[in-house]
Amino acid sequence: TDLKDSYLIPRNIMAEPDYIEDDNPELIRPQKLINPVKTSRNHQDLHRELLMNQKRGLAPQNKPELQKVMEKRKRDQVIKQKEEEAQKKKSDLEIELLKRQQKLEQLELEQQKLQEEQENAPEFVKVKGNLRRTGQEVAQ
Length: 140
Prior knowledge:
Blueprint: H1 2-5, H2 36-39, H3 41-56, H4 65-88, H5 92-120, H6 123-139
């Protein structure tokens, strides 16, 4: 039974410091460091509020951060699905108008590209184009 109960007896694993026995006034005795978090006013107010809520029986949200993130993602996904469904329910008229609008935008982009190419073209290319046009007009 001595071996079974031996683990219940507390043992001093760490050696006792020398400064406890000696009353030497020249030695600087170690002091416990101050925790800046616990001394801060915000921490104290938060701790006091948590204690009051615990006494009242109001528990704070005990959801872990991962669960909160997953719930937020689910909400965002549901909102996105609703928006997509709303877009799918567009009438035939709206769909046709969107197609026409896209075609007009493409035509405008092509015209802008042509104008930019003509403006950026070297001078001899512009003169050559003018000569061709005048030659065609004369032929007609």
